[in-house]
Write a structure and sequence with these properties.
Elements (H helix, E strand, L loop, with lengths): L5 E3 L1 H30 L8 H25 L1 E3 L15 E6 L5 E7 L10 E3 L3 H6 L7 E6 L2 E10 L1
Parallel strand pairs: 1-2, 4-5
Antiparallel strand pairs: 3-4, 3-7, 6-7
Helix pairs in contact: 1-2
Length: about 160
């Protein structure tokens, strides 16, 4: 069975590697200590600190496996091999909404490094899917949950 590839920028892969190291070297020992302390309180059946620490450990181990999997199947996108004005993962795109003239700018990244509040949108998002492969000057219709949006691409970097 083919594994899912995780497209990402080199910076995104580096950040995931740092997160993994922090999870394993800092967070995991902290949770283990919390479990030891909670165990010392006695009866585990009514020990909310123990239950809380075990829940945190479960979440932490799940995240470690997720990050390891993303790193194992990471596909680092080399934007140098893509036309200068072509939109792709790793590129930053600016476009103008044809209806209200408002300009928006986003960096298209892999889902693993998506952070919409900081201008990084996933390549799986409706906006990115509509824009990838397009060029400066192209008019694009983007289907969003709020309705269709017509935009003109103004810059790719």
């Amino acid at each position: 069975m083919a594994q899912k590839k995780f497209p990402m920028t080199a910076e995104g892969k580096e950040n995931l590697a740092k997160e993994l190291e922090n999870l394993k070297m800092v967070k995991r020992p902290e949770v283990i200590d919390r479990i030891k302390i909670a165990r010392s309180f006695g009866d585990l059946s009514e020990n909310s600190e123990y239950e809380s620490a075990k829940d945190e450990q479960s979440s932490l181990e799940t995240r470690i496996v997720e990050v390891e999997n993303m790193l194992r199947f990471a596909e680092v996108i080399d934007v140098d091999n893509i036309a200068v004005d072509e939109i792709a993962v790793g590129k930053t795109v600016s476009f103008t909404d044809d209806e209200d003239g408002e300009e928006e700018t986003y960096q298209i990244v892999g889902a693993a490094e998506s952070d919409p509040f900081n201008g990084k949108i996933s390549n799986d998002s409706p906006i990115a899917q509509a824009l990838v492969g397009k060029h400066v000057g192209d008019k694009v219709m983007v289907q969003t949950p709020g309705g269709d949006m017509h935009v003109t691409i103004t810059e790719v970097k």
